[in-house]
Write a structure and sequence with these properties.
129 residues, alpha+beta, four-stranded antiparallel sheet
């Protein structure tokens, strides 16, 4: 069993490449350090993506998220860096990462970063009665 964090994101082949479908992953235990004070910042990461050829493997994602525990970073920078790493690993049709940071000094922060593969259009939303 792995007991160390890792920056390696593993993937597996998308089992349904001919269909747009959404994968949603919530990660409520994200932590990093405030770059100004060194105090811990806590966040819930919400990942939503439409895979193309590859999907992210969950154990490697857990170890990847863990790897930020002792890193100092601004909320905006770390959210975009995580999205960039996930996009580089999976090359999705669409990916959105929302980082909702816990209150600090009476202020909540939410950062939303998105990637869209050139030329990809989302399917029309179906409203059922």
């Amino acid at each position: 069993m792995t007991t160390q964090p890792s920056k390696t994101l593993e993937t597996f082949d998308n089992p349904q490449r001919d269909r747009d479908f959404t994968i949603r992953i919530d990660m409520p235990e994200f932590t990093c350090l405030c770059p100004k004070t060194g105090q811990p910042d806590f966040a819930t990461l919400h990942l939503e993506y439409v895979p193309d050829e590859k999907c992210v493997e969950l154990k490697s994602l857990k170890l990847y998220v863990w790897s930020y525990r002792d890193e100092g970073a601004f909320h905006e920078a770390i959210t975009n860096r995580i999205l960039d790493d996930l996009v580089a690993a999976t090359q999705p049709r669409f990916m959105r990462l929302t980082a909702r940071f816990n209150v600090r000094g009476g202020v909540y922060t939410a950062v939303v970063a998105e990637h869209r593969k050139p030329g990809w259009q989302p399917p029309a939303v179906v409203q059922l009665p």
